Write the structure tokens for this entry.
Amino acid sequence: MPRAPKKTETTTPTVRVKRSRRASDVPATTTVVSDTDISQLAYQLYRARGGANGSPLDDWLEAERQLTSR
């Protein structure tokens, strides 16, 4: 009696994706601040110092820092 051919098992290599962050590493609350909010606060900072001795970029970055730290 002839033998049945052996079943060959083919295995697909497992590919693991390394993730840079786990879900537990991400802060639970993320503050979303719009450009409009930043712009308005930057203008208020500009006005508060009398419009002198500063730059628009400094005002923008300070407003962004203040709004995202809330």
User: Anything to note?
Assistant: The helical segments are 35-48, 56-68. Residues 13 and 19 are 19 Å apart (CA to CA). Residues 32-68 form one domain. The chain has two helices and no strands.
